Amino acid sequence: MTDPTTIDGFLGGRLQLAQPADRGHRAGLDAVMLAAALPEGSRGRVADLGAGVGAVGFCVAARLGDVTVTFAERAPATLELLARNIAANAPALGDRFSIAAVDIEAPAAVREAAGLTPAAFDHVLMNPPFHAAGRGRASPDPARAEAHVAGPETLERWVRVAAGLLGARGTLTMIWRADGLGDVLAALDRRFGGIDVLPLFPHAFEPAGRVILRGRIGSRAPLALLPGFVLHEPDGGFTPAAAAVLAGAPLPALWRC
Q1: What is the SS3 assignment for 249?
Q2: Locate the Methyltransferase small domain: which residues (predicted)?
Q3: Domain layout of the chain by residue ranges
Q4: pLDDT at 136
């Protein structure tokens, strides 16, 4: 029997995406914020690594008309939903999507055969599994736990794969736990420069829960900690700036690349 799904609206309803109702990873706020971090005017080939049902890549394509998106995903059930979402959104977004059905951590030859060609992309976006094993309570759903929980080498491998996919001056944009910032900076520092760090604050005057990081291949610019972005008002509603992003605006961040 087919697992139940929901149809969820993104960007104020401009996108309608099928997602698993109660199994596996469900895209939400993190995906929209990550997609909104690709600056206005960006163009070229985008790789969405660990794409799930495609929320990040579809949100990027809905805002930026001069990009094509390759979704990299390995889970068969999720790939079915991803193909369904491409078909459903093609009338509005056009024929700008392809799927690489592959594990990000597969051998290089396997990734290349699936369509992840070295140095072929201008931008990589990714939301890797970022909860350390043994930290907190894992989801009882195996698919959802696998999507969220990483072993100690996972981050390093994903960053290495991302760097190999990018051509000269290509950019990586990713979202991560704020309390794991040291780990992700160490992984990025060996391959990327000009790293910008944007903290995402749940409320004003609270510690950041997430950070978005952008870096560029070949840059020698120093790291920059950008002014943070507040998501919620004291009453729990979204701030006007966050509401604008959720409706399809780019993040108003001072990205250097």
Answers
A1: coil
A2: 33-134
A3: 5-246
A4: 46
